[in-house]
Amino acid sequence: MENPFRSEAAAFRFLLSTIGAFALIVVGSWINTWLGLAVAIVLSAAAAWLYIRQRGERPPPQHVVRAPGRRRVLVVANETVEGEELLAELRRRAQDAEVFVVCPALNTKLRHWASDEDPARLAAQARLDRSLARLEAAGLDARGEIGDADPLQAVEDALRVLGGADEVVLSTHPEGRSHWLERGVVESVRERFDLPVTHVVVDLESQPAP
User: Fold this and answer.
1) Which of 145, 148, 101, 98 is CA-nearest to residue 125?
2) What are 104's strand-pairing partners?
3) Would the pLDDT of 109 be above 70?
């Protein structure tokens, strides 16, 4: 199913707009029933117009300027960053490349609204450290950092830090267990950046406990 939201920020803006529209309808209905109905019709027409416009022609992919140097592989993964499938894929693709791993610090909505991101960042850092240690043990030149909770923003930030990359490797849970797949993150990254994107599915439930 196509995800209508390209980022968490877009979904949050939609939520705020919906609440505001509902409030306008309630106020209009309180003043006059017909006024409330008119407000509802106008807002519905405006929402339909914006949706049709958004689904129109998409902007061209963002051109990524590549800084000189060795080949760079940007890896974006959260809970699956330690997966065997991801490690095997990087062994095949990045033996002669610099590997930069970004682990978005995903947080619960409640903690995010309370500005309590420390537990999420600590958990992400622990996973990232273990992943980098395994990559280095496999003979790969790897480094990384904690990224933005929005994976699209995390990719953009990392490309800015690296001075570009040659390809992006996105790791997710399998279909049905992946929030990123539900939100269309893989397709959104392919649409936004003119880089090769490899999608790696990691099934942590099928792997032995460390």
Assistant:
1) 145
2) 147
3) no
Separation between Cα atoms, residue 193 and residue 182, nearest integer Å: 20
Q: Give the model's pLDDT for residue 54.
A: 56
Residue 84 burial (C-beta neighbours within 10 Å; 0-12, 13-18, 19+)? middle
Phi, psi of 133 (to 5 degrees): -65, -40
Range of the domain at 36: 8-54
User: In terms of domains, do 45 and 107 share one?
Assistant: no
> H-helix or E-strand containing 209?
none
Strand, coil or helix: what is 37?
A: helix
On the 0-12 / 13-18 / 19+ scale of CB atoms within 10 A, 148 is middle
CATH number for the domain that contains residue 96: 3.40.50.620
Whether 95 is in a domain gets the answer yes
Contacts of 45 (CB under 8 A, 6+ apart): none
Report the chain's mean pLDDT, rounded to a whole number: 79
Please state, in angstroms and rounded to a whole number, the distance separating the CA atoms of residues 38 and 147.
45
48: tokens are 């339909």
